[in-house]
Specification:
The chain is α/β, with parallel strands linked by helices. It is built from 11 helices and 14 strands. A 6-stranded parallel sheet has the order 3-2-1-4-5-7, sandwiched between helices. Strands 6-8-12 form a 3-stranded parallel sheet. The longest helix is centred in the N-terminal third of the chain and has 21 residues, at about 85-105. The model has no long low-confidence stretch (mean pLDDT about 95). It binds serine (SER).
Length: about 325
Amino acid sequence: MKKQKILVIGAGGQLGTELVQGLWKVYGQENVIATDIKDPQEVLAQARFEILDVLKQKQLFEFIKKNEITQIYHLAAVLSATGEKNPKFAWHLNMDGLIHVLDAAVEFKVEKVYWPSSIAVFGPTTPRHQTPQHTVMEPSTIYGISKLAGERWCAWYHRNKGVDVRSLRYPGLIGYKSKPGGGTTDYAVDIFFKALTEKRYECFLRPDAYLPMMYMEDAVKATLDLMEAPAEKITVRAAYNISAMSFCPQELASEIKKHIPDFEIAYNPDYRQAIADSWPASINDTQARQDWGWQPQYNLARMTEDILHHLPRLLAEKV
Ligand code: SER
């Protein structure tokens, strides 16, 4: 196999910081170039890192050429809540960034491209429970609209230009090593930090707001498994549904209370509740399981235990 040179765009984000470390294990630290528009967090201190803005097409093309990149993981995006505040910029970054990457893949014969989609591609008219792979998709957020359009662009570049681009519709991603920025599912990360530092959390969603969620370990595994699968197994060239667990804030709070009995939660729903209401409560991921063997490892109890086991040490180190 030809030596792989991996470019990660948006590596300083919630997913990027953990995916880069997963890629190190597969391809070796020296073959993974982490890039972002600003310096990475401490977590990526050992990474081979460079500043790169996906919106600057010329710079991006030169970078890919110079470094003889064979795989691109393009993660830079504006998420759902932030996107509603600045819709034009969200569209610009989420769309033009992707098209730049797909064009570069054609130009420099990049072997594989990964681009994340989201449950935000679904909308209020989508069947809410066990949402199928192929269904009604009328997203109401700009983020969701851009992800749905992006899925179609990926399928188009695969069909017409032969780009081996692959994608997953992530549920809310929960990790403790890095924080999300501007998503509707961010509460499920913030709550752990607040439970440990203040024993109290004020939630911006209603207690019964059910959403599909996934522990970061599973998200990284799903991404690497999808990218390692033989091309002929990938029957979906838009993005795969993947699922691990679904819960609401009240259930997450009860699970945390098993470990921190005096933890308290209060509810003060804001504009993000309407976004949550437009998304599925649970996802059917049969296609991903059949095509490339997707299988999650973490449920709510196991994830909570793992986070509350590791996060206190991380917080103590930061003080
Ligand atoms: N976690 C994302 C968000 O809330 C969904 O893809 O925006």
